C-alpha cells in the first residue's frame, strides 16, 4: 500500500492511484478501490474506465446538450477528500460513538476535518457523495454533522469488513435510514419502560426477599430485556415460530421469569432454604443453570421460546443451542422436505470477557456457514459489563473489542449504549431483519455495567473502587428512562408510577402464593416442569434382528451405483465385490458393512440417521465410504439415500477440525430430534478430550442435572497397534469414571454384529441413554473380526457379555477364565490356539457399563472347576477398564481377579512400534500365566 486513504489527500497521488485503478482495480489497495467505486458512481464527467462503445445515433438527433467542462484539479481533490471523509466515518465512526454509559465519548483525531486537508473555508462548500444519503448535496459542515449523527451516535457500527457488496450496501442503507427515522412512537417507549421496570423490580424484589442469596443479577444490563422483547415482537411478522436460546448464568433468572415466562412462584420457591425439587431422577442443579421453555402469546401469533440449560462453563452451551436449532428447523421444515431455517431462530447471550476469551466462541462462529451445521444465522447479544469477574478488559483480551473474533465470518457488529432503550430496540429489529434476509450471524455488543460484584456476596470495590463508587451513585436504567419519558410528556408521572406498582404487586402476589403453597405442602408449583420422565434402565434383551429380505435389499442398495457413475477403481474392484460376495455367501460381514446395514434398516423403519465428524464420510481408515465420489467429476452418490422411496432422512457430514463445537452441536441435535439416530465420530478416540467439557457437563450428567435425556452415539477409534499415544487410546477410563446412576452405556465390542445390534437398540428401547463406543481400527479389516448373515437376522440381538465360542468338552478342566473387552480378545484367542491351551476360557465383556453382573456370574457358573480369574487389557494399569472392572468382577464372582496388562504409565502408549509389540506380547502371555 503506497498510502492510506485516511491520510491527507494529495492531488498527484489521487491521480496516480485513480489511473492504476482504471487499468486494474486489483492493483491498488482495497481502501482505494472502495474509494474509487464511489467516485465512479458520483462523477459522471470523469474519464471512463476503458473505452465505452458509442451509442447509435437516433434518427432525429435532439439538440446536443451543452458539454460541461471536466472538473478542475482542485475540484477533483476536494471531491476525493469528501469521499475519504465518508469512507473513514463508516470505518472508524464507531471509535468515537457514545456507547459506554459510564463515560462520554472520546474524539478520534483521525476523524478531525484537518486530517483530510479541510480548512475552515471549505466548511461552506457544497459537498455530496453518491453512497451517503443518495448523493444529497449539502454544505460540508452539515455533512460532518450528519456523519457524526449517523456513525458516531449511541451505536457504533462495524461493517466495512464485510466483503460481500450486496450485504455491505444493505447494512449501510439501514444505518443511514436509521439516522433519518421519525421519532419512535409513544407506545413503543412505554413498552420499553415496562420491560426495564420489570427487570429492575425483579432484581430488587429478590434482593429484599432473599437477602444475600446468589442470583447473578442482570442489574446494570437490564437493557438486554428491551433487546430480547423487541426481537420477540417482530418474530411473527418475520415468520419466526421458535426461538432457541443459550446464555450463561448472569441474568438467567431475569430472562427465565420475564422473557421465557417461567412460573414466578416456582422461581421464588427455588430460593427458599427448604427447597427440594420434584426430580424425575438425579441430583438437579442450581437455579441459575436451569433451562425452560414456553409458548409466548403475541398479538400477531405464537412463538415457542426455549432456553437451554447450561453449566458454569461459559459459552459451552453455544454449540448445543445451534445443534438443537438445526434439528428443530428440520422438524418443522416446509412440507417435510425443504428446510426453512427462517422459522427457528437461535439467540445466544454472551459476556464480553467470555466472548473474547473462550475458544468455543470462535469454533461455533466457524460452524455458521458450513453445510452440515448452518442454522440460517444466529443473533448474538453480548452483555458487555466491561469486566470479567474481577479482570478488566486490558487484562482480558488483546483486541480493541470483545467482538473482534466475529469479524472472521464477516458478521456486522453493532456496539450499542445499553442505557438508550430505543437504540437497543432498533438494533434488535435490525439484527432480526438482517438474519432473515441473509441467513448470517449478527453481533450486538451492548455496553453496560455490573451493579453488583460477580455475585451478590462478592465485593467488587476490592478491585475496582473508583468504578464501583460511580456505579453505586447511578440510578438504574429503568428509573433514568422513566424520568425521561415523564419529562418528554410521553407518560404522566401517575402512568409511569402505575407501571411500576403493577409489576411490584404481581411479584408480591407470586411470593404470597409461594408461601401459601409451601405451608400447605402443595407441590403443584412444579406442574410446568420440562423434565422428561424415563423408565429405569434394564438389561432386558431387545429384538434388533431384521428379516433376510431387508438385509439383502439394503445390502444390494449399498453395493449399487448408477451406470454412468465413475467409481474409483479400488472401490469398484475390491470394496464393492467384497460386499457383494458377503451378501451371496452369507458372510463374512465386516464392521463397516454391518454399520451401513444397521443404518439402512433404521432408515426403512422411519428413523432418521445423522453422522458427523472429521472425515467420517470416507472414514479415517478408508473403511466406510458412506459417500462415493465420481473419479472424473467428483459428483457425489450416497447409497443410503436410495434405500426406499419412503425412507427417513440420512445425513453424513465431514465436520471442520473441531471436537468441542461439533460434539456440542451433535449433542444439541440429538436433544432437538429425539427420533433421529445421531452419531459423532472422533478421528482418533483420544481426540475426544478436546470436547471433554461437552462430555462431562452435558452428555454424562444432563439427565441427572436437568432431566434431559439423549441417545447420542460417540464413536471413538481405540486399540493398541503401535501407532503412538494419541492414536491408541480413547481414554476409556475417563468415561467409566463418569458412569453412575445408569447415565450412559459404554461398550468395547468385538464383532460387527454386536455393533449392528447396539446401534439399532438405541432406537428400539423405550428409554434413551448415550452410547460411548470404543470402535476398532485394525479390527476393521482383521479376517477373524467378522460376522455371518445369521448374526443379523430376526431372533438375534445385542449380547452384553459374549460367551467363549470354543466348546470345552469337559468344563471341569477349565481352571482359568480370562475376561477381556475389545480388540485384545483376538490376540488372546490366537495365543490360546497357537499354544493349544485347553484349560482357559475367554469371556468378553462387550458392555462395560451398565455392568451385567448376573449374566457374568451365569456364564462363569458353566465352568465349575475354574479357580483363576484374570482381567486382560491393552491399556496401562492406571488406564483402561481395570480400576472400574475389578471390584465388580470380584463382587459378581466372590473371587479375587488378577491383572494382565501394561504397567502404569503417564502416557497412554509407547511411541515405538517395536516396544508396543513387545508390551502386547508380554501382556497376552501374562493372561495365561499370572497366578
From TrEMBL:
Q: Which GO terms describe its molecular function?
A: oxoglutarate dehydrogenase (succinyl-transferring) activity
CDD domains from the entry? TPP_E1_OGDC_like (cd02016)
Question: Which cofactors does this protein require?
Answer: thiamine diphosphate
EC number assigned by the record: 1.2.4.2
The superkingdom listed in its UniProt entry is: Bacteria
Q: Which of UniProt's keywords are assigned here? A: Oxidoreductase, Thiamine pyrophosphate
Q: What is this protein called?
A: oxoglutarate dehydrogenase (succinyl-transferring)
Which lineage ranks, top first, belong to the organism behind this chain?
Answer: Bacteria, Pseudomonadati, Verrucomicrobiota, Verrucomicrobiia, Verrucomicrobiales
Amino acid at each position: 500500500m503506497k498510502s492510506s486513504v485516511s491520510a491527507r489527500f494529495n492531488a498527484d497521488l489521487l491521480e496516480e492511484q485513480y489511473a492504476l485503478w482504471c487499468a486494474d482495480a486489483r492493483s491498488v489497495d482495497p481502501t482505494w478501490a472502495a474509494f474509487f467505486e464511489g467516485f465512479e458512481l458520483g462523477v459522471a464527467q470523469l474519464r471512463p474506465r476503458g473505452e465505452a462503445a458509442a451509442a447509435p445515433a437516433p434518427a432525429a438527433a435532439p439538440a446536443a446538450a451543452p458539454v460541461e467542462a471536466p472538473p478542475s484539479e482542485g475540484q477533483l481533490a476536494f471531491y476525493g477528500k469528501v469521499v475519504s471523509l465518508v469512507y473513514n466515518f463508516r470505518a472508524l465512526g464507531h471509535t468515537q460513538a457514545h456507547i459506554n454509559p459510564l463515560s462520554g465519548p472520546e474524539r478520534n483525531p483521525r476523524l478531525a476535518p484537518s486530517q483530510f486537508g479541510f480548512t475552515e473555508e471549505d466548511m461552506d462548500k457544497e459537498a455530496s457523495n453518491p453512497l451517503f444519503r443518495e448523493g444529497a448535496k449539502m454544505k460540508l459542515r452539515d455533512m460532518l454533522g450528519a456523519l457524526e449523527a449517523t456513525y458516531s451516535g449511541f451505536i457504533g457500527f462495524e461493517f466495512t469488513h464485510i466483503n460481500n457488496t450486496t450485504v455491505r450496501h444493505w447494512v449501510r442503507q439501514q444505518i443511514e435510514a436509521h439516522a433519518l427515522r421519525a421519532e419512535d412512537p409513544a407506545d413503543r417507549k412505554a413498552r420499553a419502560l415496562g420491560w426495564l421496570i420489570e427487570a429492575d423490580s425483579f432484581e430488587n424484589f429478590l434482593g429484599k426477599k432473599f437477602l444475600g442469596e446468589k442470583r447473578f443479577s442482570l442489574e446494570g444490563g437490564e437493557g438486554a430485556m428491551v433487546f430480547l422483547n423487541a426481537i420477540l415482537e417482530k418474530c411473527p411478522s418475520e415468520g419466526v415460530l421458535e426461538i432457541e436460546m443459550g446464555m450463561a448464568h448472569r441474568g438467567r433468572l431475569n430472562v427465565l421469569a420475564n422473557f421465557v415466562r417461567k412460573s414466578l412462584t416456582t422461581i421464588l420457591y427455588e430460593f427458599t432454604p427448604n427447597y427440594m425439587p420434584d426430580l424425575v431422577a438425579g441430583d438437579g442443579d442450581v437455579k441459575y443453570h436451569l433451562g425452560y421453555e414456553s409458548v409466548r402469546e403475541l398479538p400477531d401469533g405464537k412463538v415457542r421460546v426455549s432456553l437451554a440449560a447450561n453449566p458454569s462453563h461459559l459459552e459451552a452451551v453455544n454449540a448445543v443451542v445451534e445443534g438443537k436449532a438445526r434439528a428443530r428447523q428440520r422438524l418443522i421444515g416446509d412440507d417435510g422436505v425443504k428446510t426453512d431455517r427462517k422459522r427457528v431462530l437461535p439467540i445466544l447471550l454472551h459476556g464480553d470477557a467470555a466472548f473474547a476469551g473462550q475458544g468455543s466462541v470462535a469454533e461455533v462462529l466457524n460452524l455458521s456457514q458450513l453445510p452440515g451445521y448452518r442454522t440460517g444465522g444466529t443473533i448474538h447479544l453480548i452483555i458487555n459489563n466491561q469486566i470479567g469477574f474481577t479482570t478488566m478488559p486490558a487484562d482480558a483480551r488483546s483486541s480493541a473489542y470483545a467482538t473482534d473474533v466475529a469479524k472472521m465470518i464477516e458478521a456486522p457488529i453493532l456496539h450499542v449504549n445499553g442505557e438508550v432503550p430505543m437504540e437497543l430496540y432498533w438494533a434488535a429489529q435490525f439484527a432480526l431483519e438482517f438474519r432473515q434476509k441473509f441467513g448470517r450471524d449478527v453481533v450486538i455488543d451492548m455496553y453496560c455495567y455490573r451493579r453488583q460484584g460477580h455475585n451478590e456476596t462478592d465485593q467488587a470495590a476490592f478491585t475496582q473502587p473508583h468504578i464501583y463508587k460511580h456505579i453505586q451513585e447511578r440510578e438504574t436504567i429503568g428509573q433514568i428512562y422513566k424520568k425521561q419519558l415523564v419529562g418528554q410528556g410521553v407518560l404522566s408521572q401517575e402512568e409511569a408510577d402505575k407501571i411500576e406498582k403493577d409489576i411490584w404487586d404481581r411479584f408480591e402476589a407470586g411470593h404470597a402464593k409461594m408461601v401459601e403453597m409451601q405451608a400447605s405442602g402443595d407441590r403443584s408449583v412444579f406442574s410446568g416442569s420440562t423434565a422428561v420422565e424415563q423408565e429405569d434402565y434394564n438389561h432386558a434383551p431387545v429384538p434388533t434382528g431384521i428379516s433376510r429380505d431387508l438385509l439383502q435389499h439394503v445390502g444390494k442398495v449399498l453395493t449399487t451405483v448408477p451406470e454412468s457413475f465413475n467409481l474409483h477403481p479400488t472401490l469398484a474392484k475390491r470394496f464393492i465385490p467384497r460386499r457383494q460376495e458377503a451378501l451371496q455367501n452369507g458372510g463374512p460381514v465386516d464392521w463397516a458393512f454391518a454399520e451401513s446395514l444397521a443404518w439402512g434398516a433404521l432408515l426403512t423403519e422411519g428413523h432418521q440417521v445423522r453422522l458427523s465428524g472429521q472425515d467420517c464420510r470416507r472414514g479415517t481408515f478408508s473403511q466406510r465410504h458412506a459417500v462415493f465420489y465420481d473419479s472424473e467429476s467428483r459428483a457425489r452418490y450416497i447409497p443410503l439415500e436410495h434405500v426406499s422411496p419412503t425412507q427417513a432422512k440420512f445425513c453424513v457430514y465431514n465436520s471442520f477440525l473441531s471436537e468441542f463445537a461439533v460434539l456440542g452441536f451433535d449433542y444439541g441435535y440429538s436433544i432437538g430430534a429425539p427420533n433421529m439416530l445421531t452419531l459423532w465420530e472422533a478421528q482418533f478416540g483420544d481426540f475426544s478430550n478436546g470436547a471433554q467439557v461437552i462430555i462431562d457437563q452435558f452428555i454424562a450428567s444432563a439427565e441427572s442435572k436437568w432431566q434431559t435425556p439423549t441417545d447420542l452415539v460417540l464413536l471413538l477409534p481405540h486399540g493398541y497397534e503401535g501407532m503412538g499415544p494419541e492414536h491408541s487410546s480413547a481414554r476409556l477410563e475417563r468415561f467409566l469414571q463418569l458412569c453412575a446412576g445408569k447415565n450412559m452405556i459404554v461398550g468395547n465390542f468385538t464383532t460387527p454384529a454386536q455393533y449392528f445390534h447396539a446401534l439399532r437398540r438405541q432406537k428400539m428401547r423405550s428409554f434413551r441413554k448415550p452410547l460411548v463406543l470404543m470402535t476398532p481400527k485394525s479390527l476393521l479389516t482383521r479376517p477373524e473380526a467378522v460376522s455371518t448373515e445369521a448374526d443379523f437376522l430376526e431372533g438375534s440381538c445385542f449380547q452384553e457379555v459374549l460367551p467363549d465360542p470354543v466348546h470345552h468338552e469337559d468344563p471341569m478342566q477349565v481352571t482359568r477364565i480370562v475376561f477381556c473387552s475389545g480388540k485384545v480378545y483376538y490376540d488372546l484367542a490366537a495365543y490360546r490356539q497357537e499354544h493349544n491351551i485347553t484349560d482357559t476360557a475367554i469371556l468378553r465383556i462387550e458392555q462395560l457399563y451398565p455392568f451385567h453382573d448376573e449374566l457374568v456370574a451365569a456364564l462363569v457358573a458353566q465352568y465349575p472347576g475354574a479357580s483363576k480369574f484374570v482381567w486382560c487389557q491393552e491399556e496401562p494399569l492406571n488406564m483402561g477398564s481395570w480400576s472400574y472392572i475389578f471390584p465388580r468382577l470380584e463382587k459378581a464372582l466372590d473371587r479375587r481377579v488378577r491383572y494382565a496388562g501394561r504397567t502404569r504409565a503417564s502416557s497412554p502408549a509407547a511411541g515405538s512400534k517395536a516396544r508396543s509389540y513387545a508390551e502386547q506380547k508380554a501382556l497376552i502371555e501374562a493372561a495365561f500365566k499370572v497366578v
